């Protein structure tokens, strides 16, 4: 069965999938982000400057907004080239919606990507899992050395990151699928040639 989207089909599938996933994100947002918190805490511990200890990463509500909040402490005042980190308790937060944006964008693109059958569509959507893992992990910038990268992500970079990763995943999957199809075709042709040669050999042997 051909499941390739024709004409305006791909844009419509993209928009419909994006809308449905956005609605789903409102229903499962807390559970989904909560599953990410252990990994986000581990990444924050690695990315924070030396002398700053990450105590926790948690979901909080502040000013009617759901936030992923980093709670850290420092035993001494830290001075760097870009800023000064005071001694005591530090809090840094980002919108929960930012974490949710990655699976919504990635899967909307993968759902609209043209493929020839449902099995390839299923494989493509399965590849979306590691794609989302990578993009969400790269969206966790912390620490002074990553200040420029952090500004880039908040300036629209996270959307570009998710789109680029989804397109790269789809292109690589399509290329691998075509290579596999060509390999199967070559193997089938060789089998047919060998079979024909064997038949001719048997006919020749019989006619002697």
Explained architecture:
The protein is of the alpha+beta class and 208 residues long. It contains four helices and five strands; from the N terminus they run αβββββααα. The strands form two sheets. A three-stranded antiparallel beta sheet has the order 1-2-5. A two-stranded antiparallel ribbon has the order 3-4. The longest helix is centred in the last third of the chain and has 61 residues, at 147-207. The chain is elongated and about 60 Å long. The mean pLDDT is 79.
Pick out its properties.
alpha+beta, 3-stranded antiparallel sheet, 208 residues, 16% strand
The radius of gyration over CA amounts to: 26 Å
- Low-pLDDT residue spans: none
Helix content: 55-70%
Number of domains: 1
Going across the major beta sheet, what is the strand order? Answer: 1-2-5
Give the helix tally. Answer: 4
Let me know the average pLDDT.
79
Instruction: Characterize the largest beta sheet: strand count, sense, and whether it forms a barrel.
Output: 3 strands, antiparallel
Structural category is: alpha+beta
Shape: elongated
Total strands: 5
Query: Percent of residues in beta strands?
Result: 15-25%
* Helix-strand sequence: HEEEEEHHH
- First and last CA, distance: 49 Å
List the helices and strands and how they pair.
Layout lengths: L8 H39 L4 E11 L2 E10 L3 E2 L4 E2 L2 E8 H17 L5 H21 L8 H61 L1
Antiparallel strand pairs: 1-2, 2-5, 3-4
In short:
The protein is α+β, with helices and mostly antiparallel strands. The protein has helices at residues 9-47, 96-112, 118-138, 147-207, and strands spanning 52-62, 65-74, 78-79, 84-85, 88-95. The strands form two sheets. A three-stranded antiparallel beta sheet has the order 1-2-5. A two-stranded antiparallel sheet has the order 3-4.
């Amino acid at each position: 069965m051909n499941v390739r989207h024709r004409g305006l089909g791909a844009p419509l599938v993209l928009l419909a999938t994006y809308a449905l996933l956005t609605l789903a994100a409102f229903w499962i947002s807390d559970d989904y982000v909560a599953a990410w918190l252990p990994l986000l805490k581990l990444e924050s511990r690695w990315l924070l400057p030396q002398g700053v200890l990450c105590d926790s990463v948690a979901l909080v509500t502040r000013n009617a907004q759901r936030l992923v909040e980093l709670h850290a402490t420092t035993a001494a005042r830290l001075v760097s080239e870009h800023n000064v980190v005071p001694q005591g308790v530090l809090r840094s937060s980002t919108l929960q919606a930012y974490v949710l944006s990655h699976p919504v964008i990635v899967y909307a693109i993968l759902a609209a990507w043209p493929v020839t059958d449902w099995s390839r569509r299923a494989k493509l959507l399965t590849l979306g899992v590691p794609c989302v893992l990578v993009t969400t992990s790269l969206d966790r910038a912390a620490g002074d050395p990553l200040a420029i990268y952090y500004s880039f992500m908040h300036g629209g970079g996270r959307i570009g990151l998710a789109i680029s990763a989804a397109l790269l995943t789809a292109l690589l999957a399509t290329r691998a699928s075509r290579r596999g199809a060509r390999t199967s075709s070559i193997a089938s042709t060789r089998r047919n040639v060998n079979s024909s040669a064997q038949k001719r050999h048997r006919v020749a042997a019989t006619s002697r």
